[in-house]
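Issue 218. Parser rejects a valid record. Input:
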Amino acid sequence: MLDGSHYFECQCGGAEHTLRFVLNKEDDELYTSIFLNDWQRWYKRLWVAVKYVFGYKCKYGHWDCWILRREDAERLHSMLYEFINRERK
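Output the parser choked on:
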């Protein structure tokens, strides 16, 4: 597998439910990122911003869900296997 980005879409098909993995062999690191949902109306987001300014932290954090499509499981497994078993510098 080559260095670069690998995208995995959620089974639901929502564009915001896409995981991105970046396998960087040179730095021997695996990065991942996922879009955090911002579905709330403007006034709710404003309220969240005001609470943030005053230091409020939600004890649950910001979570969303993602379902691995069966056809992507082998590709994800191969990428992780390569990352785990490659020779260290």
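Fixed in the parser; the record now loads. The first helix runs from residue 42 to 53.
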